[in-house]
Specification:
It is a single chain. The protein is of the alpha/beta class. The chain has a single domain (3-275, 372-396), classed as Spore Coat Polysaccharide Biosynthesis Protein SpsA, Chain A. The protein is built from 13 helices and twelve strands. The protein has helices at residues 38-44, 67-80, 92-104, 119-132, 152-158, 198-209, 231-234, 247-257, 281-300, 328-345, 349-366, 372-389, 395-404; strands at 3-12, 30-31, 54-61, 87-90, 137-141, 145-146, 163-164, 167-168, 171-177, 216-218, 226-230, 263-272. The longest helix is centred in the last third of the chain and has 20 residues, at 281-300.
Length: 407
Amino acid sequence: MKTTMVIPSYWRREKALGTRQTDTVYDHPTPLDEDGTLARALNSINILDDKDFELVIIAVANAADVEMQVEQKVKNILLTTRVDIPVYLFSHSHLQRMHACLRDTGGEKYNYLLKLSGYSSIRNLCLFLPHVLNSETAVLIDDDEVFEDPQFIRKTREFIGKKIDSDYIGAVAGYYLQPDGNWRLTKERQPWMIHWDKLDRMNEAFEQIIGREPRLKQTPFVFGGNMVIHREIFSRIPFDPHVTRGEDIDYLINMRMFGYKFFLDNTLAIKHLPPAKHHPTWKQLREDIYRFVRERAKLRFQKPVSNMAGIRAEELDPYPGAFLKDDLEQKVADACRELAETYREQGNEDDAIEAMRNIEIAISEAASKEDSFGRLLELQQHWHNMMQLTAKGNVRPRLKQILTERT
């Protein structure tokens, strides 16, 4: 079973130069004058018993003016890190050439589906590049993780693409081990978290799915940095670029709507060692608000469509279902008022104002009449058409040459 592992790596300008308002926002892009976590992730691959797979590293710049510097930085890391598997670099120059190839072969209208900006678009490249390499499975990993299980690759292949008890296994999620080796999340409790009980609901879901038998079971949540997707799925279903955070669970929802189940293997673990986040709490909460309101809207705008399945928020309980119901705005309001009060007690009025703005954002987003379900149908059709086009004739060989040739 031909397998391609894909690891995105996010970068920004040198630390002293700071950020600009026009920069794409990622959780922790590495400054160009630092080494980051990519080499550590690559070195950990050497513990794997099964190395019969190809690896693609996606070098992502958060701003156009550093694209070539980022590409060279990651190229240098790959040249100085020994990994005993075929490794290919994909970055901004490669994307430009692939766009040109699609223009030459009648697929220019699909270029918008292939972008190096935004989490969902990067995840789509994590599906498209294994397709270019004609792989049966795509393994999605992040560069702030390390492998500790020598049997990891064997486990990714154990169920994928098979039928078990009449269920087709087209996508399998693993899970994250925290730095302390546990899969449970721990965080210092703050008053606002009483109302925004995300941590509790996540741990409740983890206990039900990760902490209990059987080993393989349908899951309401997934981890974007540890998932295995068969080409039966990735040739048909894309990530939704309109969802800027939580694209992993949104992908699960998309799959469910198109009639596929996502399973979790409670032995498929990877150690997650992310750098500290420096975004203020109100901003992290705001990103959650956008993701949950938009995912809920997709559920609400569902309508009967042939060969598609309806899905309710309750089917995704306890997480993310608890944040996709009618009380979402009340959760936001209660949590943000409490957070604003904490900021004011600290003498931080600017952050208090931003926390209160979250309430307005939630209400405004929820009032949107945009048909997110209809947009998903159009996106899916375009994606499927592009995947069919790029599998034909000489298109795939041309794209593969762009990816695999040494520069």
